[in-house]
Amino acid sequence: xxxxxxxxYAEIGLKGKNRYLFENALRDRIARVLKSLGKYTVYKxxxxxxxxxxxxxxxxxxxxxxxxxxxISSICPVVIIEDSDWDSLTQGVGDYVEAMYPDKDFTFxxxxxxxxxxxxxxxxxxCSEMGAYLLDRFSNLRVDVHKPSVRISVEVREQAxxxxxxxxxxxxxxxxxxxxxxxxxxxxIDSPVAGYMISKRGVSLSAVYFHAPPYTSERAKQKVVDLAxxxxxxxxxIKLYVVNFTDIQLEIYEKCPHDELTIIMRRYMMxxxxxxxxxxxxxxxVTGESIGQVxxxxxxxxxxxxxxxxxxxxxxxxxxxxxxxxxxxKKIDTYETSIQPFEDCCTIFVAKHPVxxxxxxxxxxxxxxxxxxxxELVETAIEAVEVIxxx
Length: 391
Ligand code: ATP
Ligand code: MG
Fold this sequence. Notes:
By secondary structure, the protein is an alpha/beta fold. Helices cover 41% and strands 19% of the residues. It has two domains: 4-168, VC0802-like (2-Layer Sandwich); 180-390, 3-Layer(aba) Sandwich (Rossmann fold). The chain is elongated. Magnesium ion is lined by residues 186, 188, 344.
């Protein structure tokens, strides 16, 4: 029975003069997500976005797609009443209740909004008159203005809109309204969740994955591509850079103390990620790190990996417990892919007893042992980077 959706957004309504930019970003994002499902029309109208659906569209599929669009606070399937004169309006709202609620035995409240200020009735008048009409037409309905089981919303614009179902959206801000960041995406549970969270704040993503063939397999790389695909359902297109990290890792393995391998490797990942981020005009790096989760994520280790880049590094999971991260990864559907047992490049070269409190001075001294070779290896890795377009 629904041929349209009314889309509500919260935060982006607060942006003053920039508001239209955010609204346009949201409208465009919705249009893009729905494009692959059919010929939908998406348009703005006074603080609302409307989606008109093509004939024969799939309701569940549409709601599912909209629930992945950041910036949407709620999704309301609406019935449009073409003529908003009072008789047509009451008739239309009554027919809506007739069709929606077979037993018609519940408490309700009418909530009216009048965007068309020339309408002969005020909003409170619409509420009370419409309530009276419905009570008259359906004898088992009862009004409860405090805790109604059904809120019937009526919005009078050029046309009128009626709805009573409110489906929660994901919240956040429309992707692309807040710049771009480079996500260090491994095959683990954490980094996809970190990407999701940053993107939810309106940031679009590029991503970089470091692999070490033949120590890491094609399947490990495919797993990362799959994770990027899962993320892209929320974030839109992701340009995924795949860096061959083998020679750099071998060089570090050969020249540096083994208990510092992970830290030094992570420092080179950050350096390369920053280089790619600058090329991509990203404004920050994003990692899935969380304090104390593993040896390379103690406060000392984080300080040490942080020191090598000047771009801001965003760590949205920094204070999250693992179980909470797992919960989000299940919710966004990356968990099953993340737990596939394909090693990522760090696990091959890890020492049995990595330093947990690396001293910056010692790490810098160890890195000096790479002086002669490392710059060229880094350049080669960047030149040979593979780019995979994921969406
Ligand atoms: P994740 O679950 O995200 O893999 P983790 O718990 O395994 O994290 P680490 O391996 O210490 O933790 O990695 C910390 C962060 O460094 C990751 O969240 C990710 O952002 C980045 N990272 C680690 N390995 C790689 C890699 N091979 N390619 C790209 N980024 C990586
Ligand atoms: Mg990992």
